[in-house]
Design a protein that fits this description.
Number of helices: 2
Largest sheet: 2 strands, antiparallel
Number of strands: 2
Radius of gyration: 19 Å
Shape: elongated
Strand content: under 5%
Order of helices and strands: HEEH
Helix content: 55-70%
Strand order of the largest sheet: 1-2
Distance between the termini: 19 Å
Length: 83
């Protein structure tokens, strides 16, 4: 892999991670504020509290799995030049 290809891959990974973060923030906002009117409880916690803590954590794990499966590549970041 050339230096230019490595740079493009690193930029792609960074952009995908930023997008995943934005998706996670939107999910957290929906879970916290969107479900605040619900009367459902889970273990005596309001639904919004359960989903905005445990649900966001589980959703983050799914997003990281997607990133590692489809976006990230295992590559050597060392210098290829030999002196």
């Amino acid at each position: 892999m050339t230096e230019k290809e490595k740079y493009r891959q690193v930029c792609r990974e960074a952009a995908a991670t930023g997008i995943a973060l934005l998706i996670l923030i939107v999910f957290w906002l929906f879970a916290g504020f969107g479900l605040s009117g619900s009367t459902i409880t889970i273990f005596r916690l309001p639904l919004w509290a359960a989903v905005s803590t445990v649900g966001v954590w589980l959703f983050a794990i799914v997003l990281v799995w997607i990133l590692t499966k489809f976006v990230f590549k295992d590559m050597d970041l060392g210098d290829e030049r030999h002196d």
